[in-house]
Amino acid sequence: MGAITLHDHLLDYRTIGDHTAEVTFLDSRGITAHLTYRQLAERAREAAGALLARGLTPGKRVLLPIPTGPEHLTALLGCLLAGLVPCTIVEPSNPGDPNSAGARQFSAVVTVTTPAAVITVDTGSADALAALAPGPAYLSTADLDAPAGWDGELPVRGPDDAHHIQLTSGSTSAPKAAVLTHAQVTANVRAIHQALELAPDRDRVCHWLPLHHDMGFILSLSTMTKGVPLDLMPSISFLRDPLSWLRHISERGATITTAPPFGYRTTTDRYRRAPVQDLDLSTLRQAYVGAEPIPLQSLTDFRDTFAKHQLGEDVIIPCYGMAETVLAATMSLQHRPTDELSWGRVKALRLDREDLHHHSRVTDATSEKPSLTVLACGLPLGDLTVHICTPDGAACADNQIGEIHLQGEFVMAGYLAPDGTPQPLTDRTHATGDLGFTRDGDLYIVGRVKELLIVNGRNLPPYDVEETVETHPDIDAGSSAVFSHTDNGGEHVVAVVETRLRADAHERIQRETATLVRQTFGFNLSEVIVLRRGGIPRTTSGKRRRNRLREQYLTGGLT
């Protein structure tokens, strides 16, 4: 059977074994395992047989709370070969405590996705999760050996059949689940192949993004279907030693990588504290950055810090995308003239901050007024079109701010409704909730219509963080508000809390609130502000006005 082609038909996972490359699994120190594509294909076919033999039928959904490793890819490709619809999710932490954030998240995902089965790393994990959310069949990766009597027939899926489910929110109460079809995934993967110019005899992809994140999942899928060598490192290994990411790129001659801005920032900060001398980044030809607001300074610092290690100036490529478009929507692939705000494939504008934040106007900054730098995210991929729209749906002209709407062949089928059925989109158009504008064809992101937080590449509703903050004994229910704001340093999350306690207790409350958020969600609040009761602005019905709170904060009126 020949190699995969994408021009006239859908991705065919039965042909992955025809490729001669391999997937290598790494931790922060070195190689932990590897599989040739032939070995992976054989294991995935066995897994598909085992799943079909257990009575699972094409179209049924399967949750995969499995960490990055051979078992994850085997289960994932096994589901796809069996015509099942996988949904890769984070492994719940502390599943034995039903009140923990991980346990509540898992229960919410089961409710939304209504899976027929859940595949875990071992029987102990299966038993713990089954106690949390009974209903699906709970299997371990050891259950994926094909039974002797399986006849080997694999189903064929159509273009409009669901390919996978991608969670788009970190909510512990009502996560959104995007349904992506085989045609949509094929279209986006085709566009990624073309944009990256992937070539098996030239390229090697290395990244540490989790496979439950659309960027990690689809980049890995794009790499494997093209037969390009793939190096995967768990995100926890990167967090323990950020420079291990660059060491692996250097030692293994990787040509393509990707990360959210915090990955580039964290790596730069670690190098500046403890520099290393034996890096050679000359093989790296593309380093994509996206998944959260992109600060120019983080990219400039990364470029300048690692230029001495042969990092090319045109390597860094800003991009914009989301699960609702499978992954990639726009990329800044074109080469830019070099000046103060432009180099390689990076281009930025310096805008008047007051006009942008308070009047929604795009005005180039002058030297005497406060400014904000926004980055070009490039041009649309494939047949995707970007529309900037006013609240009443009218089209915006260039340099006019509005909500970003995306339309095209790799826009999702729709979100899952509470009863588990897809809610179809109208006219294949997704209203992103992001605010932006276009100039000279480039898309610029300047904010969000919604109050969603984007932290380290994760989407988090503010009410999830508020719920955690309000577990503090000195903060009453409904007495907190969380919002984010963006400046030239990136995205910052601020928590505002009300308390009855005297001022001498406020410092302790700030410290303990920050610890609660860090322990639960794994990120640091930029600031915790303590107010007396009644300090948080509300609507007449008592809802927290987070956008108004943000305005007060940015104008110095929050006291």
Query: What is the name of the CATH topology of the domain at 13-232?
Result: Rossmann fold
- The DSSP helix count reads 14
User: Distance between the terminal alpha carbons, to the nearest Å?
Assistant: 69 Å
Largest sheet, spatial ordering of strands: 11-12-13-14-18
* Cα-based radius of gyration, to the nearest Å: 24 Å
Please give the share of residues in helix: 25-40%
CATH homologous group name of the domain at 13-232: ANL, N-terminal domain
CATH architecture of the domain at 13-232: 3-Layer(aba) Sandwich
Shape: globular
Q: Classify the beta-strand content into a percent band.
A: 25-35%
In the CATH scheme, the class of the domain at 13-232 would be Alpha Beta
Tell me the major beta sheet. Answer: 5 strands, mixed
| Low-pLDDT segments | 1-7
Which structural class should the secondary elements be placed in? alpha/beta
| Overall pLDDT score | 90
Number of strands: 29
Outline of the structure:
By secondary structure, the chain is of the alpha/beta class. Among the domains are: 13-232, Rossmann fold, CATH 3.40.50.12780; 461-554, ANL, C-terminal domain (GMP Synthetase, Chain A, domain 3, 2-Layer Sandwich).
What are the SSEs and their pairings?
Blueprint: E1 22-26, E2 31-36, H1 37-53, E3 61-64, H2 70-81, E4 85-88, H3 101-113, E5 117-120, H4 123-132, E6 137-140, E7 162-167, E8 177-181, H5 182-196, E9 205-207, H6 214-226, E10 230-232, H7 235-240, H8 243-252, E11 256-259, H9 261-273, E12 286-289, H10 296-306, E13 316-321, E14 328-331, E15 342-343, E16 346-352, H11 353-359, E17 371-375, E18 379-380, E19 385-389, E20 402-407, E21 414-416, E22 422-424, E23 429-439, E24 442-448, E25 453-455, E26 458-460, H12 462-469, E27 480-487, E28 490-499, H13 506-521, E29 527-532, H14 546-554
